[in-house]
Design brief:
Structural class: alpha+beta
Order of helices and strands: HEEHEEEEEHHEEE
Strand content: 25-35%
Shape: elongated
Number of strands: 10
Helix content: 25-40%
Strand order of the largest sheet: 3-6-7-8-9-10
Radius of gyration: 22 Å
Number of helices: 4
């Protein structure tokens, strides 16, 4: 509930029992909950872990976008677009979307790069066929860019290319199938 008023749901009870929240009673008898110092420490530790994971991902996204730009392409990060999948529309948010630097639509050759630095994230993504289909609808090619050691190319659907990101660079493990 808002403003720190306790609702005593299962999560709140667990946080109280762990000492991460504490109950306080005001002068008028109203009870509130407050994050304890231990709770703040747990939140800070969790934030640092999440930031470290996200930083590795964002660094690789930046690396891929930079490589696309060096190859003469226009590259976008954080793009959100609708894609037609089956009978409906889905929001697609590729890590990197790029096109050739051209004014002729037929020559644009859109490419989607999906970046994965954690195996669990890759496996969760691979279970979402509609997401992959949206990427294939947006781009002529869809590539998975995976951190070295988290997966093998044969684990990635055959319609997608695989780039392996190592300390020395990006290497093509399997080319993407183009349109048609």
């Amino acid at each position: 509930r808002s403003a720190g008023w306790p609702c005593h749901d299962a999560l709140e009870i667990e946080l109280l029992a762990a000492g991460l929240l504490e109950r306080l009673r005001g002068p008028l008898g109203h009870e509130t909950v407050r994050v304890t110092d231990a709770g703040i420490a747990v939140l800070a530790e969790t934030l640092a872990k999440n930031r470290a994971r996200r930083d590795a991902h964002e660094l690789l996204v930046e690396r891929v976008a930079r490589e696309m730009t060096r190859a003469g392409r226009l590259a976008w990060r954080g793009l959100a677009v609708r894609a037609r999948v089956d009978a409906g529309w889905v929001m697609a948010m590729p890590d990197v979307f790029s096109i050739r630097h051209t004014t002729v639509e037929a020559y644009a050759e859109p490419i989607v790069h999906e970046v994965k630095v954690q195996r669990a994230d890759l496996l969760a993504d691979l279970r979402r066929a509609s997401k992959r289909q949206a990427y294939l609808e947006l781009g002529g090619e869809c590539w998975y860019v995976i951190k070295e050691g988290i997966a093998h190319a044969d684990e990635i659907p055959a319609e997608c290319g695989v780039l392996i990101a190592s300390a020395v660079g990006l290497s093509v493990e399997r080319p993407a199938r183009g349109p048609g």
